């Protein structure tokens, strides 16, 4: 009996060592590795629940923060510390993010960004659309510092440029703000491209490359998705009216 089975067993062993079976095994291993990588990336993303509100002083971050949470207008003042709260993005109470309003003062903003950047699922960079022409260089400088940060580059959180104060007649449009920021960021990239040197002539390091080398900068070159939206935390009817945050609220639903 055993002798009769031996030829069949030998044939089976040959088939198991054949190229077809090997190809199947390689494909299964590749699928398993891809699945594990996907689970790892998803796990890292799901552990990042914060949406950071960044911007210069007086851009309207704190009023925007209050409006998102309560819908009501309130007087605000320049923040010297962070404020955070859970924001429910839909009627489904299990879908939420943590909004964190960070100070915009020049001496504080990078310090607080350093503290919270690793937890960021998304970033809302708030721009004062009325004062933009006057502040464009400062806005671009801060945004540049955010975009070349190694943690931000690695995690690639979704980025929304919220062009606030659109209720004011002199407010610049989101399209113009995008064009001006791309121009200023391109200038900053050129001026920062050469690594500084110490007194002995050795390089002290250089920031990460922003965008694609050899091409004028635009936001599509970044590893994260960047969108622009026009909004008004104050609203067209002032303190008694509602804020115009529909575009921002829809974006928060997408990134949650």
UniProtKB/TrEMBL annotation:
Matching SUPFAM superfamilies: P-loop containing nucleoside triphosphate hydrolases
Keyword Magnesium attributed: no
Pfam family, one: SRPRB
Transmembrane spans: 20-38
Record-linked Gene3D superfamilies: P-loop containing nucleotide triphosphate hydrolases
GO cellular component: endoplasmic reticulum membrane
Keywords attached to this entry: Endoplasmic reticulum, GTP-binding, Membrane, Nucleotide-binding, Receptor, Transmembrane, Transmembrane helix
Annotated membrane topology: Single-pass membrane protein
Top-level taxon: Eukaryota
A GO MF term: GTP binding
InterPro entries tied to this protein: P-loop_NTPase, Small_GTPase_ARF, SRP_receptor_beta_su
Location(s) in or outside the cell: Endoplasmic reticulum membrane
Chief location category: endoplasmic reticulum
Family: Belongs to the SRP receptor beta subunit family.
Protein name: Signal recognition particle receptor subunit beta
Native organism: Hirundo rustica rustica
């Amino acid at each position: 009996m055993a002798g009769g089975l031996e030829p069949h067993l030998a044939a089976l062993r040959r088939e198991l060592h054949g190229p077809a079976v090997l190809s199947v095994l390689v494909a299964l291993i590749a699928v398993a590795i891809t699945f594990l990588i996907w689970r790892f990336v998803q796990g890292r993303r799901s552990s990042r629940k914060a949406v950071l509100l960044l911007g210069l002083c007086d851009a309207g971050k704190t009023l925007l923060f209050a409006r998102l949470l309560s819908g009501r207008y309130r007087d605000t003042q320049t923040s010297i510390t962070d404020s955070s709260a859970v924001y429910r993005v839909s009627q489904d109470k299990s879908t939420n993010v943590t909004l964190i309003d960070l100070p915009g003062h020049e001496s504080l903003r990078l310090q607080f960004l350093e503290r919270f950047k690793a937890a960021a699922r998304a970033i809302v960079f708030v721009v004062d659309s009325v004062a933009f022409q006057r502040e464009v260089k400062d806005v671009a400088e801060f945004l540049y510092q955010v975009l070349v940060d190694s943690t931000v580059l690695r995690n690639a959180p979704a980025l929304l440029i919220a062009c606030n104060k659109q209720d004011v007649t002199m407010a610049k449009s989101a399209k113009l703000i995008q064009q001006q920021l791309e121009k200023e960021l391109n200038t900053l990239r050129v001026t920062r491209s050469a690594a500084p040197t110490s007194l002995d002539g050795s390089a002290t390091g250089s920031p990460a490359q922003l965008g694609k080398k050899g091409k004028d900068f635009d936001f599509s070159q970044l590893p994260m998705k960047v969108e622009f939206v026009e909004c008004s935390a104050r609203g067209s009817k002032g303190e008694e009216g509602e804020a115009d945050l529909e575009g921002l609220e829809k974006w928060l639903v997408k990134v949650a």
